[in-house]
């Protein structure tokens, strides 16, 4: 015989289970809140010649302040195919959607590395090359007049352990500020000159094999005071790629002199592809 106390206990238990079930169903039917939105894409920043990853430091601070995860790997600067392979190893290690950003020669690298990767949602070119397959950085630089880079270079021969020889290119320290970063404070430019990474001359003469901008949303920051890549060259490439372009009165080092502007374009690209 079941006691009155036992019946009451069972009723209380059934009531609790019913309440729990209703709560779960209600939660499942409730629209996602703002906190449930998809995570922001990872921004991958590829530096170019005569620079290193620290050239993105101020841009990284802006992006992180707005909640974007960021990766800024070292670019070997040996050639588009080699450097794209190095960048691909980084991309393969980063889960989820990504925005690729390239500065200068780094644009050639992201053009190759970002091809045929569905997780690369957009490309942002910052004072950068947007080469078509078969084009070289050197060829594009000379398409329109205005680059004064050749007269500032310091060629340095190198020999690798396997006997391979070649020539690395630096910008002469005394010419770096005017040539590469005229709108950056002199002290900062001096540090940039001291820490610059050389690019193999052959890298500027190597033809690119792919152009990710052909089938991915593309943005371009065009620098009108650029002495490395003439502004008309940048305009030509951006127009050909149907890029969303912004023109900035800045030197080639716009990521250092105007990081808020550069970060703003990157975030615009990220928002447009979510």
TrEMBL record:
The keyword Signal applies. Keywords: Signal. Pfam families: Abhydrolase_6 (PF12697). The keyword Signal applies. Residues 43-263 form the AB hydrolase-1 domain. Residues 1-34 form the signal peptide. This is Pimeloyl-ACP methyl ester carboxylesterase. It comes from Streptosporangium brasiliense.
């Amino acid at each position: 015989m079941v006691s009155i106390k036992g019946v009451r206990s069972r009723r209380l238990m059934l009531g609790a289970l019913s309440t729990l079930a209703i709560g779960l169903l209600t939660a499942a039917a409730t629209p996602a809140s703002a906190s449930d939105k998809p995570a922001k894409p990872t921004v991958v920043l590829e530096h170019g010649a005569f620079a290193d990853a620290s050239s993105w430091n101020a841009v990284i601070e802006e992006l992180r302040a707005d909640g974007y995860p960021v990766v800024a790997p070292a670019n070997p600067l040996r050639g588009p195919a080699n450097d794209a392979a190095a960048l691909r190893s980084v991309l393969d290690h980063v889960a989820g959607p990504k925005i690729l950003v390239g500065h200068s020669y780094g644009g050639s690298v992201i053009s190759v590395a970002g091809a045929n990767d569905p997780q690369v949602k957009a490309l942002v070119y910052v004072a950068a090359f947007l080469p078509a397959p078969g084009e070289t950085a050197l060829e594009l630089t000379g398409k329109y007049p205005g680059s004064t880079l050749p007269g500032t270079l310091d060629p340095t021969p190198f020999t690798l352990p396997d006997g391979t020889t070649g020539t690395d290119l630096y910008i002469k320290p005394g010419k770096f500020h005017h040539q590469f970063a005229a709108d950056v404070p002199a002290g900062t430019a001096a540090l940039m000159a001291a820490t610059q990474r050389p690019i193999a001359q052959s890298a500027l003469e190597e033809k690119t094999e792919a152009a990710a901008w052909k089938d991915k949303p593309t943005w371009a920051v065009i620098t009108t005071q650029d002495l490395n890549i003439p502004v008309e060259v940048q305009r030509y490439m951006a127009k050909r790629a149907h890029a969303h372009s912004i023109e900035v009165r800045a030197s080639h080092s716009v990521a250092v002199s105007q990081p808020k502007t550069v970060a703003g374009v990157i975030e615009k690209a990220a928002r447009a592809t979510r």
